[in-house]
C-alpha cells in the first residue's frame, strides 16, 4: 500500500447515516519523517461524534471511549505549520483499558460497557487491558476537517487476546505482557501436535515459526518459546486421567477444573442417572458455524458393550461434508426426561452465543431414540440413517456365513426388505419368511438373526417408513467418525481403563479433540500437507471421487473396480452392484464397512444402467407424494402448497449448483442482486434520498430540533406504526 506523506493527498470522506464506524471508511497509510506509518482517514469535523458513536456500538466489541489526553492551540499561534499540525488534539482510548487490576492478577469479569463514573479511580472493574485507541486532530490548516489516526483497531490486550465483549472467552491477566504474543490458534496447534505424539523438536520448530509471524526474529522470543514447549511437554507427560482412585470422585474434580468445557453434569444418585455433557469452546464455535440451518447428526452406538457408560456424539458436517463432533454426552440413560435435561442445556448454550442459531435437520441412527425432545428443542425435521443397521448385518453375515455366494444372496435379500417398505404389494415380513426357508442350512446366522433382530425388526422398519432416509454420503461420514473414534480410543486401552469414565473423558478432550482440530485447521490454513491429505480422504465417499469412471467395469451381475494402489492390473469384485447392500471383496469392506468401491460403482451404475433409485431418494419421493396428496383441487390450500414447493425447489436447485460447480463465482453471477443498507442505531430502513448532510452543519441545523426529541419521536412512531 502506498504511504502518503501529506494530508493534502488524502481524500475527504463523509459516509451517510446518523452514525458510522471504521468499517465504513477507506483507510490510508500516512507517515511523517518522525513517526511510523498509521492508518488515517479524513472526515468533516462536525461528524467526529457520529464516528465515535459508531465505534462504541460495534456489535462484537460494545464499549465507550474516553479522552486519555488532549491539547489545543489558539488560531494564529503558529506562523509556520505542517499539513498535519493540530488545532485540537484528543486521544480516545477504549474504556476497557489500558490497565487491568485484580487480586493476584486474576482475570476480571468482562462487562459490555464501562460503569458510568466520572472518577477514573472508580474504574478498576472495567479495566481489561484493551489497547484499542485512536487520535482525532482538528487540522490547523483546515479547521472544518478532522484527521483520524487509528493506532490500534483491534480490541485486544498486549498478548493479542480479545479482552472484553461477547467474544471474550478467556481474558488473561497483566502477567501476559512479559511473554511474546501467542494467540489461541498457536497455543491449540502446539497442544494438538504434542497430544498426537509429534516429536518435541518438530513441535518447537512449528511453534517458533508461528510466533515469529507476530514477533519477528528475536533470541529472547525463541528462548521463551523453547521453555514454553518444554513445560507443556512435561505437563502432558505427567498428566493422568486418575485424579482420584474413585472414578466418580475423579470426574467431579475434572468437572470442577473444566467448567468451560462442561455444558451439563448430573452426578449419579439413587433417583438420577449419571450424565456428563462435554463441549469445548472450539466445538461450540463449529456447532454455530456448520450447524446453523444445516444438518446435525448423532452417533449413539459407541461403547454400548465395552464402556462403563456409552458415548453419544452430536455431529455437524463441515465444508467437505465430513462429520465433526461438536458435543459428547456420556450416559446410559435414554429416558425422555433425562434426554431433555442435557439437550436443553446444549441448545441454551448455543443460543446464548448466537440467538439466531437454528438447526436445519437432525439425523438419528436408532429407532429407540426419543424424538419428542428433538422436535421440541431443535424444532427441525428428522432423518433416519441406515449406516448402523447395514454395518451390523454385513459384519454378522461375513462372520457367520462361509460361502461368498451365500453371503451376497442373504445381503441382497435383506436389501429387498428395505426396498419393499414403500411398496404396497410387497410384504417385508413375507420376504423374511422366504429368506429363512431358502437358507435353512445357515443355522448359525439364522439363530443370531432370529434372537437379536426379529424381536425389534418391526420398530426399525416402522422408523424407516415414517422418517426420510439420509444419503449414502452422510452415512459414510458418520461411519468414518465412528471408526476413527474406535481406532483412537481402543488403541492403547486396557480392560480396567474401559470401565473408568475419567479415562474416556481424558481421551476425548486431549487426543480426539486435538486430532479433529488439527484436521480442520490444516485444511483451512494449508498447513501440514500430510495431515490435510489424510483429512480430505478420510471418508469412503471422498475416496470414491478419486476413482475414475473408466476403472469401473460391469460383467453380468457383478462389477469390477481397478485397484488404485497395486500395479494397476488387479480388480476388486462387487456383488449386487447399484444397491446400498452391495458386497466388495476388499479388506475394508470385509470388516463390515462401506467401502469406496461400492460407492463408486453405485455412482456409475445410476448413470449408465436403468437402476432403481436409492433408498434415500425413494423416501424423498414418498415425502413429495404425501405433500401432493394434501391440497384439495382448485383450492387456496393448493396455491399455498404450490408456493412452498416452488420455494423449496429453488433452494434445492441453488444448493445443487453450489455443491456441484467447480466455480462458485459463475453460480453467484446468476443470482439476483439484493441491495441493502446499514441500519442506524435509532431508525429503520435507509435514510431518505433527499437528506443531504453538509460538513459544517450541526445537529440543530441538520434535524431542526434537539437530538433527544428526535429519538423520542422515532420511538413513538416505531411503537404506534404511524
TrEMBL record:
The keyword Ion transport does not apply. The keyword Thylakoid does not apply. One of its GO terms (molecular function) is zinc ion binding. InterPro entries: Znf_SWIM (IPR007527). Residues 705-722 have a biased composition (Basic residues). Keywords: Metal-binding, Zinc, Zinc-finger. Coiled coil: none annotated. It comes from the Eukaryota. Residues 695-722 are annotated as: Disordered. Residues 571-606 form the SWIM-type domain. This is SWIM-type domain-containing protein.
Amino acid at each position: 500500500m502506498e504511504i502518503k506523506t501529506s494530508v493534502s493527498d488524502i481524500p475527504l470522506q463523509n459516509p451517510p447515516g446518523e452514525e458510522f464506524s471504521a468499517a465504513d471508511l477507506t483507510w490510508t497509510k500516512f507517515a511523517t519523517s518522525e513517526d511510523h506509518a498509521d492508518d488515517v482517514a479524513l472526515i468533516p469535523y462536525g461528524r467526529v461524534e457520529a464516528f465515535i458513536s459508531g465505534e462504541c456500538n460495534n456489535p462484537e466489541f460494545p464499549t465507550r471511549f474516553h479522552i486519555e489526553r488532549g491539547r489545543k492551540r489558539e488560531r494564529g499561534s503558529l506562523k509556520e505549520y505542517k499539513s498535519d499540525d493540530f488545532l485540537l488534539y484528543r486521544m480516545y482510548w477504549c474504556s476497557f483499558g489500558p490497565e487491568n487490576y485484580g487480586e493476584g492478577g486474576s482475570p476480571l469479569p468482562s462487562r459490555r460497557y464501562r460503569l458510568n463514573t466520572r472518577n477514573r479511580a472508580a474504574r478498576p472493574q472495567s479495566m481489561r487491558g484493551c489497547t484499542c485507541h485512536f487520535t482525532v486532530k482538528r487540522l490547523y490548516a483546515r479547521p472544518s476537517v478532522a484527521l483520524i489516526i487509528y493506532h490500534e483497531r483491534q480490541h485486544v490486550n498486549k498478548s493479542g487476546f480479545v479482552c472484553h465483549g461477547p467474544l471474550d472467552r478467556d481474558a488473561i491477566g497483566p502477567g501476559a505482557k512479559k511473554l511474546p504474543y501467542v494467540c489461541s490458534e498457536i497455543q491449540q496447534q502446539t497442544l494438538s501436535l504434542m497430544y498426537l505424539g509429534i516429536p518435541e523438536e518438530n513441535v518447537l520448530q512449528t511453534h517458533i515459526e508461528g510466533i515469529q509471524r507476530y514477533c519477528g526474529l528475536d533470541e529472547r522470543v525463541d528462548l521463551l518459546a523453547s521453555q514454553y514447549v518444554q513445560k507443556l511437554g512435561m505437563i502432558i507427560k505427567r498428566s493422568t486421567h486418575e485424579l482420584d482412585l474413585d472414578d466418580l470422585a475423579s470426574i467431579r474434580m475434572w468437572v470442577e477444573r473444566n467448567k468451560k468445557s462442561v455444558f451439563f453434569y448430573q452426578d449419579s444418585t439413587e433417583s438420577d442417572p449419571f450424565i456428563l455433557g462435554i463441549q469445548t469452546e472450539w466445538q461450540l464455535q463449529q456447532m454455530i458455524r456448520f450447524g446453523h440451518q444445516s444438518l446435525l447428526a448423532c452417533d449413539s452406538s459407541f461403547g454400548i458393550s465395552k464402556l462403563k457408560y456409552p458415548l453419544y456424539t452430536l455431529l455437524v458436517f463441515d465444508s467437505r461434508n465430513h462429520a465433526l463432533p461438536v458435543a459428547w454426552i456420556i450416559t446410559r440413560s435414554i429416558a425422555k426426561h433425562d434426554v431433555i435435561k442435557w439437550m436443553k442445556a446444549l441448545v441454551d448454550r448455543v443460543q446464548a452465543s448466537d440467538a439466531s442459531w437454528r438447526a436445519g435437520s437432525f439425523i438419528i441412527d436408532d429407532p429407540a431414540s426419543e424424538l419428542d425432545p428433538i422436535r421440541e428443542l431443535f424444532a427441525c425435521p428428522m432423518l433416519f440413517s441406515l449406516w448402523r443397521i447395514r454395518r451390523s448385518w454385513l459384519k454378522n453375515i461375513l462372520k457367520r456365513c462361509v460361502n461368498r455366494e451365500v453371503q451376497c444372496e442373504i445381503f441382497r435379500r435383506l436389501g429387498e426388505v428395505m426396498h419393499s417398505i414403500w411398496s404396497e404389494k410387497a410384504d417385508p415380513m413375507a420376504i423374511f419368511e422366504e429368506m429363512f426357508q431358502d437358507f435353512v442350512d445357515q443355522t448359525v446366522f439364522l439363530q443370531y438373526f432370529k434372537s437379536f433382530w426379529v424381536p425389534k425388526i418391526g420398530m426399525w422398519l416402522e422408523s424407516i417408513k415414517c422418517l426420510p432416509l439420509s444419503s449414502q454420503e452422510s452415512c459414510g461420514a458418520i461411519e468414518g467418525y465412528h471408526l476413527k473414534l474406535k481406532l483412537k480410543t481402543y488403541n492403547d486401552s486396557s480392560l480396567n481403563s474401559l470401565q473408568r469414565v475419567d479415562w474416556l473423558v481424558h481421551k476425548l478432550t486431549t487426543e480426539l479433540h486435538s486430532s479433529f482440530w488439527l484436521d480442520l485447521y490444516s485444511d483451512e490454513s494449508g498447513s501440514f500437507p500430510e495431515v490435510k491429505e489424510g483429512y480430505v480422504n478420510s471418508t469412503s465417499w471422498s475416496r470414491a471421487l478419486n476413482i475414475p469412471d473408466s476403472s469401473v467395469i460391469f460383467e453380468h451381475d457383478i462389477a469390477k473396480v481397478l485397484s488404485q494402489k497395486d500395479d494397476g492390473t488387479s480388480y476388486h469384485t462387487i456383488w449386487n452392484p447399484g444397491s446400498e447392500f452391495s458386497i466388495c471383496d476388499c479388506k475394508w469392506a470385509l470388516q463390515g464397512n462401506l467401502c469406496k468401491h461400492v460407492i463408486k460403482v453405485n455412482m456409475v451404475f445410476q448413470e449408465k444402467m436403468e437402476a432403481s433409485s436409492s433408498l434415500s431418494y425413494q423416501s424423498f419421493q414418498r415425502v413429495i407424494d404425501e405433500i401432493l396428496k394434501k391440497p384439495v383441487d382448485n383450492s387456496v390450500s393448493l396455491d399455498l402448497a404450490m408456493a412452498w414447493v416452488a420455494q423449496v425447489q429453488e433452494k434445492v436447485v441453488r444448493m445443487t449448483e453450489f455443491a456441484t460447480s467447480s466455480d462458485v463465482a459463475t453460480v453467484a453471477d446468476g443470482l439476483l442482486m439484493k441491495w441493502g443498507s446499514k441500519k442506524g442505531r435509532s431508525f429503520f430502513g435507509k435514510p431518505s434520498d433527499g437528506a443531504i448532510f453538509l460538513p459544517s452543519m450541526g445537529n440543530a441545523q441538520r434535524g431542526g430540533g434537539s437530538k433527544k426529541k428526535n429519538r423520542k419521536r422515532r420511538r413513538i412512531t416505531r411503537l404506534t406504526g404511524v
